[in-house]
Design brief:
7-stranded mixed beta sheet, binds pyridoxal-5'-phosphate, alpha/beta, 13% strand
């Protein structure tokens, strides 16, 4: 009896039972191979190999040397919010009032705050599959219901107005979240596709959230921001990807004016503020444009190399590789279990990639995601190893 009561004290909540990322298992298996002397080509983790721009690191050093780092304003340091607004003028030629910009602890915290500010428990929010798993897991943890919209080649792997409205007619939706460029596919929505979807949401009163974390990493055509198309859209972005600052944990949101105060209250209570050091570094990162463009150039070279090499190795069914640093390859010719395929590729070819089942509970067993944010030499090595492995016919 006593034991039962004691157990209850440490029993986790039902809402905390979100699935773990399978990529973590791949990383652990890769680490075991490396511990026994193997050399693994890492293409499983979605982060830049490059470090933050030198200007960002110098600004952080100077701030540390100056001494005290206190809390900042809940919405972020005003000069950083103004610099982000200027970024919209420079990159997209649009004017955004700095008062609508909120600095967040990576885009990850932006999702939590946007969902809390927009939705109530039980609300239904459409997300694309394949898609970034934390969207659905954060929604679930907050008591909302992610509604998975299966995308296909016919919709260019994006949620279309038809798909959205069909789901909305089955049961009303309160929101939709899109990402362009997307993870895990790297595919992008055209400006027209985003505009059409936005128009459909406005007609139906569905809130529109745009994850623009991979903006800046576009190769096929220029990424469009939802901020240009509507002042009602919630835009989420981050310093993690283009700016090479994953570990600094800093991102931002562009909000409709009416949501700024609710988010300020939420952030003040949930976090007080984003780490001051990271905000200072992030502001300086905007001055590291040359360095960041050089990193992007490496991704472009890597992308071309894989697009030439992987089809020759047998992986010739790849979703449009428009942006980000991912390539999503159909492996169904070789396996109906993407986790087993990734595990075998890791063990036998020493190339680590992420099973599609992490991103798509419906068709993910047919796909594997490769991240090409590493050094170009690694991409050459990966193509050579995969060619040899698949060519050996052990699959
Ligand atoms: C599509 C997408 N959105 C958001 C994130 C979260 O990034 P961060 O919290 O570092 O901004 C990631 C990270 O991989 C991602 O791929």
């Amino acid at each position: 009896m006593m034991l039962e009561t004691a157990k209850r004290l440490v029993t986790p909540s039902a809402r905390s039972a979100v699935p773990a990322f399978m990529v973590m298992d791949v990383m652990a298996a890769a680490a075991r191979i490396e511990a026994s002397g193997g050399h693994v080509v890492h293409m499983e983790v979605g982060q830049p190999a490059a470090s933050a721009p030198a200007r960002a690191i110098a600004a952080a050093r100077a701030a540390l040397a100056a001494g005290r780092l206190g809390y900042t304003e809940a919405l972020g340091i005003p000069s950083l919010r103004a610099r982000i607004a200027r970024h919209y003028a420079e990159r997209y030629a649009i004017e955004i009032d700095p008062a609508r910009i909120v600095v967040t602890t990576g885009s990850s915290a932006a999702f939590v705050m946007a969902f809390l500010a927009l939705f109530d428990p039980g609300d239904r929010i459409a997300v694309a599959v394949p898609g970034y798993p934390p969207y659905r897991h954060i929604l679930t943890a907050l008591g909302c219901q992610p509604v998975l919209i299966e995308t296909t080649q016919a919709s260019r792997w994006a949620i279309t107005p038809d798909l959205l409205i069909a789901a909305h007619r089955r049961a009303p939706l309160q929101g939709v979240l899109v990402a362009s460029p997307a993870n895990p596919t790297g595919t992008m929505m055209t400006a027209e596709a985003i505009g059409d979807l936005l128009t459909a949401t406005q007609a139906e009163g569905i809130r529109f959230i745009s994850d623009e974390i991979y903006h800046g990493l576009d190769y096929a055509f220029a990424a469009e921001t939802a901020a240009r198309l509507s002042g009602d859209a919630i835009v989420i972005n981050s310093f993690s990807k283009y700016f090479c600052m994953t570990g600094w944990r800093v991102g931002w949101m562009v909000l409709p004016a009416a949501l700024v105060r609710p988010v300020e209250r939420l952030q003040g209570n949930l976090a007080i503020s984003v780490p001051a050091l990271s905000q200072i570094a992030a502001q300086a990162a905007f001055d590291g444009r040359d360095e960041l463009e050089a990193v992007k150039h490496v991704y472009e070279v890597n992308r071309r190399l894989l697009l030439d090499g992987l089809p020759k190795a047998g992986l010739d069914r790849i979703l449009p590789v428009d942006g980000a640093f991912y390539l999503y390859a159909d492996v169904s010719r070789f396996s109906s279990d993407s986790f087993a395929f990734a595990k075998q590729m890791l063990e036998e070819a020493h190339v680590a990639a992420t099973p599609g089942i992490d991103f798509d509970p419906v068709n993910g067993n047919s796909f594997v995601r490769f991240c090409y944010a590493g050094p170009t030499a690694d991409m050459h090595e990966a193509v050579a190893r995969i060619t040899k492995w698949l060519g050996a016919g052990t699959r």
